[in-house]
Write a structure and sequence with these properties.
Helix content is about 40%, strand content about 25%. By secondary structure, it is α/β, with parallel strands linked by helices. The model is unreliable at about 390-395 (pLDDT under 50). The chain binds adenosine-5'-triphosphate (ATP) and magnesium ion (MG).
């Protein structure tokens, strides 16, 4: 029996004008994801079809589960669109499994086909009953639901549905700049942004020697894990040491975090401008720490006009952890390496900072050139699912 993976698109069905763009992006993403397998992929406006070798099926499914833009998929038996072939195949399939009750649901996309959907289901149900003993039809709660899709050339028969990853194909939105720390929240934020179709670059603020190369490697590992969902990701590493040291030398301790985050946002905006980023994305969550109260967010956010997307803003930590476990970033995130935000934490960071005071604090040192230097001195690493190449100033 000849099988095929039949993919039903996700939300892209709502995007009438852009439909082809969405389908082509999904097609390219699936093709890239399955490039190590011997597969043939076909597409039309309603479905995508993947021919595969049986021995690869489990691995292919694991890969498909990481491609956004798929609503459901089925492992379908493929048959010529004529009644005799369909009848013979459906009996073969049903004989190969064990069940007591069943129901046939047919769908006729080829309106020129001689039979209507209901009549088709009735006839095929009758054929199954005639060829297999001790079974009966149950339309409400069948052991097996057999779906039959009649299309022009080929028809498809399937028993199982698998939930796809949903969302939009990565690349249907332009690039977003993810602030990626080694924590739990920011990889989840990146994953959720990719699920909406955003292509990611990541930015890591590093403060060597106060942070270690282990901390950097942890961020590289997290980026690789995100690349499983979003393809190649450029990871930009900012040397944040000089700015951070100046902040802690000059500013009032309770404002240090506020100022540090305003500097991060300024640098992020410039990286967006030089590397075609359309939004800053981060793992801030309302109320989680002093710098993430709404008052703090307003003061920090006021240094940039870039949109700041915070996908986990309204999630509880436990909800974020659930996603982190699901996408396999959690175990890496909890490795105990210090982050630039944690090495200089003041005892009492301000919870309700004032914008005027933040400006006064920033006037205590000359940060403008330091911000520019941080951007020109970026170190960029291109990270793929299984490797990374280091090169500077990648566009
Ligand atoms: P945790 O899971 O421990 O909260 P976190 O990464 O969310 O880790 P926060 O201090 O809550 O840490 O920082 C809020 C957000 O700011 C992060 O989610 C991340 O997007 C960004 N951020 C913090 N530190 C860095 C860093 N060193 N490099 C890049 N982005 C950072
Ligand atoms: Mg956090």
């Amino acid at each position: 029996m000849n099988r095929i993976i039949l993919i039903k698109y996700g939300e892209l069905t709502t995007k009438k004008g852009n439909r082809n763009f969405f389908i082509n992006t999904l097609y390219n993403n699936i093709k890239e994801k399955l490039k190590k397998f011997d597969v043939k992929i076909h597409k039309d406006r309603a479905r995508m079809y993947i021919e595969f070798n049986d021995s690869d099926l489990d691995d292919i499914k694991k890969n498909i589960d990481k491609v956004f833009g798929i609503h459901t998929y089925h492992i379908a038996y493929i048959v010529n669109t004529n009644m005799d072939d369909i009848k013979a195949e459906i009996v073969n399939i049903m004989k190969s499994i064990s069940f007591k009750t069943f129901k046939v649901e047919s769908k006729r996309s080829d309106k020129s086909f001689e039979l209507g959907s209901q009549e088709m289901s009735r006839i095929l149900g009758g054929v199954i009953l005639k060829n297999i003993d001790d079974i009966h039809v149950d339309v409400h709660n069948p052991d097996v639901l057999v779906k039959v899709e009649i299309r022009e050339k080929n028809s498809y028969i399937y028993l199982n549905s698998y939930k796809g990853s949903g969302g939009y194909p990565v690349g249907t939105q332009p690039k977003g700049m993810l602030m990626l720390s080694g924590g739990i929240d920011s990889p989840v934020a990146g994953y959720l942004a990719m699920k909406r179709g955003v292509k990611l670059d990541a930015v890591y603020f590093e403060a060597i020697p106060h942070t270690s190369l282990d901390a950097r490697n942890k961020v590289i590992t997290l980026t690789k894990k995100l690349a499983l969902y979003g393809g190649n990701i450029n990871l930009h590493i900012v040397n944040f040491t000089p700015i951070q040291e100046e902040i802690y030398k000059n500013c009032s301790p309770n404002y240090c975090i506020t100022i540090m985050r305003r500097m991060m946002y300024r640098i992020m905006e410039k990286i967006c401008n030089t590397h075609k980023g359309f939004a800053i994305i981060n793992g801030e969550s309302i109320g989680q720490v002093a710098s993430q109260t709404l008052t703090s967010m307003k003061v920090i956010n006021s240094v940039t006009n870039m949109p700041v997307i915070r996908p986990v803003a309204c999630l509880d930590k436990l909800e974020i952890i659930d996603i982190a476990k699901k996408i396999d970033t959690y175990e890496t995130s909890i490795l105990p390496y210090e982050d630039c935000c944690t090495v200089f934490v003041p005892k009492h960071p301000v919870i309700n900072p004032k914008i005027d005071q933040a400006i006064i604090e920033e006037e205590k040192f000359d940060y403008k050139k330091m911000v520019d230097d941080a951007v020109t001195g970026l170190d960029t690493i291109r990270i793929t699912e299984d490797a990374f190449n280091k090169f500077k100033n990648l566009l």
